[in-house]
Write a structure and sequence with these properties.
The protein is 36% helix and 19% strand. The protein has 18 helices and 22 strands. A hairpin with a 3-residue loop joins β18 and β19. The longest helix is centred in the N-terminal third of the chain and has 23 residues. The protein has a six-stranded antiparallel β-barrel, surrounded by four helices. It has a five-stranded parallel β-sheet with strand order 2-1-3-4-5, sandwiched between helices. Strands 7-6-8-11 form a four-stranded parallel β-sheet, sandwiched between helices. It is an enzyme of class 5 (isomerase). GO terms for molecular function: arabinose isomerase activity; L-fucose isomerase activity; manganese ion binding. This is L-fucose isomerase. InterPro entries: Fuc/Ara_isomerase_C, Fuc_iso_dom3_sf, Fuc_isomerase_C, Fucose_iso_dom1_sf, Fucose_iso_N1, Fucose_isomerase, Fucose_isomerase_dom2_sf, Fucose_isomerase_N/cen_sf.
């Protein structure tokens, strides 16, 4: 199995990064002495970003440079026009010198922007940076301020490590903002079992994310299955791949509720068809046009989707667990490819959280219930055994009925340690290891229509970030973040704890990194402060990237365990208070309002 070629499966070009070299516009020796130095600095930034960043679909990130240095309003307008034509979604201004701030800044209100003011003394770019920050803040245009900690000589075009870190963090988050803009969230069904997160809040999607909402009733799956509106050849190939790679697990249902072999055979065929249909609904399929279904071939340009399932669907048809697990994995019968963001129970807010994580990392996301906090004492009471190692302060059981990506088994590796990687880094052996670590158990009794749920245990030792967006009446969206690690626990302890909920579902044992303060004083407090029944889990400690992204979208963060020195927000946030950063974040987001007004 090999990786499919990187491609953009959605409508619209991938956003580009605009690089704006600004300069002291005074002629007669000043500008002339700075032209080459300034443009060289801009080229260095463009080279860095192009070499170190990749879009989540595997395509390279492209930078667009201004045609000239920007010394005044005319050149600023010429650059803005060029960037609009080129599809620039975020801008970075660079300069080693003083410039005229009001004449040279980027005034587009809807795209993220940053300024790197060179820390030098000959023609102090830092002075311009401070003045330009002031201009942005007076105009209500948040800007990220990048200022290196060490003085450089003006001829030095190297990018210091601390500057590079901020450039990359800003660019990753800005690309995520620009990639979401204009795309769709597709609700396949409506509200599942009264879960409020299933409600597609159009104001949130439009005003904060720049996205539109699309809706398809679940009966569309029935129509397409009954009329054969899917690629029949791909279905046969997909079904064969499924038979060869998806081994059936234990049936824990009582004898009188177990489905017959023939019923299970039909269930497998149905869930494979559902997977093809959901994907086609999201992004379209040209094969359908050749079959005479031109409208269906177009899809909904959905960068994320959710499937209601329970209960109207699952009381009669096989559940969506196979569909959700395969789509959110980095591979299927077509090879290794970018994941699809598909939320179980149509939890729109968890889907958005998963989308954030995927756009920032390029890797798959684990969807899970935040099910149970197990203290060391409780574990000892029910198992007679002690939790040790990283788990000794207690563990959180992340588990759900099946849509957890198979990447979540942890059978990919980086540096010899378990990982979840972007698809272009995954090997065929790692795919097989993920498949081999997963069994597909016949659905339990409350899935009356049958189906299969993934069952695996995530390997311990992965650095991960648990996150969730919640909507609060009168406040709007807020983001929760908890960095931590997956942990292994002894099999005999896992077995007892797993049997108390549902042994046919995938389990990730999670331990947040504790700070000793606030809601991160202990593991119980993290669980107790979590704002919903669901979470998304990303590989890596990406809390800092999530905070930067949230500030761009004007979404405050109401809990996190990210060290203060890793937090990067627009410079205006400091004006709202420097002693209590959480309160300053809330005040800034409230005053500025959502990005798309």
């Amino acid at each position: 199995m090999s990786a499919t070629a990187a491609s953009n499966r959605l409508i619209g070009d991938m956003p580009k990064i605009g690089i704006r070299p600004t300069i002291d516009g005074r002629r007669g020796g000043i500008r002339e002495s700075l032209e080459a130095i300034t443009m060289n600095l801009a080229n260095q930034v463009a080279q860095l970003l192009s070499e170190k960043l990749t879009h989540s679909n595997g395509l390279p990130v492209q930078c667009v440079l201004a045609d000239t240095c920007i010394g005044g309003v005319a050149e600023a307008a010429q650059t803005a026009a060029k960037f609009e034509r080129a599809g620039v979604g975020l801008t970075i201004t660079v300069t080693p010198s003083w410039c005229y701030p009001m004449e040279t800044i980027d005034t587009n209100p809807s795209i993220p922007k940053a300024i790197w003011g060179f820390n030098g003394t000959e023609r102090p770019g830092a002075v311009y940076l401070a003045a330009a920050n002031s201009a942005h803040n007076q105009k209500g245009l948040p800007v990220f301020s990048i200022y290196g900690s060490d003085v450089q000589d003006i001829e030095d075009s190297s990018i210091p490590a601390d500057v590079e870190e901020k450039l990359l963090r800003f660019a990753k988050a800005g690309l995520a903002v620009a990639t979401m803009r204009g795309k769709s969230y597709l609700s396949l069904g409506s509200v599942s079992m009264g879960i409020a997160g299933c409600i597609a809040d159009e104001s949130f999607f439009h005003s904060y994310l720049g996205m539109r909402n699309e809706y398809v009733d679940m009966t569309e799956f029935v129509r397409r299955m009954d009329l054969g509106i899917y690629d029949r050849h791909e279905f046969e190939r997909a079904l064969q791949w499924t038979k060869e790679n998806c081994k059936e697990g234990a049936d824990v249902n009582p004898e009188h509720l177990r489905r017959t072999s023939e019923e299970k055979k039909n269930d497998w065929e149905t869930v494979v068809k559902m997977t093809l249909i959901a994907r086609d609904l999201m992004i379209g399929n040209p094969i359908l046009d050749r079959m005479g279904y031109g409208e269906e071939a177009l899809g909904h340009n959905a960068i994320a989707a959710g499937f209601q399932g329970q209960r109207q669907w699952t009381d009669h048809y096989p559940n969506g667990d196979f569909m959700e697990a395969i789509l959110t994995s980095s591979f299927d019968w077509n090879g290794i490819r970018e994941v699809y963001i598909m939320s179980t129970e149509n939890d729109t807010l968890n889907a958005v959280t998963m989308l954030f994580g995927h756009l920032l990392t390029g890797s798959a996301q684990i969807f899970a219930d935040v099910r149970t906090f197990w203290s060391s004492d409780a574990v000892k009471r029910v198992t007679g055994k002690e939790l040790t190692g990283m788990a000794h302060n207690g563990i959180i059981h992340l588990i759900n009925s099946g849509p957890a990506t198979l990447d979540g088994t942890g059978r990919q590796s980086k540096g010899g340690q378990p990982a979840m990687k972007p698809f272009w880094e995954i090997t065929a052996d790692e795919v097989q290891a993920c498949l081999d670590a997963t069994t597909w158990c016949p659905a339990v009794d409350f899935f009356r229509g049958g189906g299969f749920s993934t069952d695996f245990q995530t390997l311990g030792g992965m650095p991960v970030t648990m996150a969730r967006i919640n909507l609060i009446q009168g406040l709007g969206p807020v983001l929760q973040i908890a960095e931590g690690y997956t942990v292994d626990i002894p099999e005999d302890i896992h077995h007892v704890l797993d049997q108390r909920t549902n042994p046919t579902w995938p389990t990730t044992w999670f331990v947040p990194s504790l700070t000793g303060e606030g809601v991160f004083k202990d593991v119980y407090s993290v669980m107790n402060a979590w704002g919903s029944n669901h979470c998304a889990l990303s590989y890596g400690h990406i809390g800092d990237d999530l905070i930067t992204l949230a500030s761009m979208l004007r979404i405050p963060v109401n809990m996190h365990n990210v060290a203060e020195e890793r937090i990067f927000r627009p410079s205006a946030w400091k004006a709202f208070g420097t002693a209590g950063l959480e309160g300053a974040d809330y005040r800034a987001c409230h005053l500025l309002g959502p990005l798309y007004k």
